[in-house]
Amino acid sequence: MPFKKLHAHIQERMIFQSIEEPTSFQSKSIPVIKSGANVYCIAPKGSGKTTTLILTILQKLKCEAIGNAPRAVVLVENKEKALALYRTFLDYTKQTSLRVYVGYEQLHIDVQKSEIFEGIDILITTPKSMNKLFLLNGVSTSQLKLLSIDDAEFLIQKSEYDAIMSITQSILKCQYVLYTEKMHPRLKRFEEYFMERARLIEIKK
């Protein structure tokens, strides 16, 4: 079972959340993501995509803080989704040393830069905000291990698409995991750029 092969803290949090058995999507996706491959995760709402995103990041970071630069980045569509995901992450990172930070376009970029500089492990933000941080040298990706994109359909919009392309061109090496309800030709096109040799995990309705 995927949960039983995860870090002990994650297993404890799953019990606390009263989640005993993985969904079909989680059973298929977690081992592939753990392998380090780039992955397209396609599944309907309610399949456990967001929980999978959180669990695999915690597993990758071994549930402990290291250094100052983010080792995992999660990109979401907007401020509301960023804050909601941040609150969910906090439920899973309790009793760990992991530092989770949330940023978004409405938060002044200088505030984000100074707070990130103090040291974080997981950065939750939007593509536009992340791109702006890059342009102002406000975030380092030297330690980045995993970049996940939640509900990635929003990336088909030109401004968001351009932002993710700019971001990934600035990252030397990391694992990419993209979660979406359905594949779109624009998302598939990422294989030509940063989703090299991506695995495809798909669960039908």
TrEMBL record:
Keyword list, A-Z: ATP-binding, Helicase, Hydrolase, Nucleotide-binding
UniProt xrefs under Gene3D superfamilies: P-loop containing nucleotide triphosphate hydrolases
Organism superkingdom: Bacteria
Domain Helicase ATP-binding: 30-201
Keyword Hydrolase: yes
Pfam families registered for this protein in UniProt: DEAD
Name the UniProt record assigns to this protein: DEAD/DEAH box helicase
Organism: Maribacter algarum (ex Zhang et al. 2020)
Lineage of origin: Bacteria, Pseudomonadati, Bacteroidota, Flavobacteriia, Flavobacteriales
